[in-house]
TrEMBL record:
Gene3D superfamilies: Winged helix-like DNA-binding domain superfamily/Winged helix DNA-binding domain (1.10.10.10). It holds the Pfam family Vir_act_alpha_C. This is PadR family transcriptional regulator. Residues 59-138 form the Transcription regulator PadR C-terminal domain. Residues 141-164 are annotated as: Disordered. It comes from Streptosporangium algeriense.
Length: 164
């Protein structure tokens, strides 16, 4: 057991600043696990600077579905991709006003919040742009509109031969 575990336990109750954590610590855990302000902030700094968040998750439900879009009609596949583009655009629409609101602020939360916000905006634009591109790629596939394209085998039609 460590201070880290105690802080995680408090954070499991909901988001909190370092100050909030220290106040909660003082009124709840101080009798069983005392901690000073410098210890709490040192632990938070450790998390920020020395803990590797690890590689980004490679799991994507959206891309898993994309992988199997060939099982649908082209119209359904395009509709799915079009919806992904809309989702990206909607996220941009939600984040842009926040960017405008904090653009002139220079406190740490605003400055570093803008960095995270910019990632969200760029990721959303990437999702939108990729989905629009993918929709056009489906249009380039051989086969009729709205139909699934059968895989090409390279061989012509099979002819029946009489083996009598």
């Amino acid at each position: 057991m460590s201070l880290r575990h105690a802080l995680l336990g408090l954070l499991s109750q909901g988001p909190a600043s370092g100050y909030d954590l220290l106040k909660t610590f003082d009124i709840s855990l101080a009798n069983v696990w005392p901690a000073t302000q410098s210890q709490v902030y040192a632990e938070l700094r450790h998390w920020l600077t020395e803990t590797d968040p690890g590689p980004p998750s490679r799991r994507s439900e959206m891309l898993l579905r994309v992988f199997f879009l060939g099982e649908l009609s082209r119209e359904q596949a395009r509709a799915y991709l079009h919806r992904q583009a809309e989702i990206g655009e909607e996220q941009i629409g939600r984040l842009t006003p926040v960017r405008e609101m904090i653009s002139t602020m220079d406190d740490d939360l605003s400055v570093y919040g803008r960095l995270a916000l910019e990632w969200g905006l760029r990721f959303s634009a990437l999702r939108r742009d990729w989905a629009l591109w993918a929709e056009k790629e489906i249009d380039r596939l051989p086969g009729g509109e709205g139909e699934r394209a059968e895989p090409e085998t390279g061989a012509g039609p099979r002819e029946e031969t009489d083996r009598t």
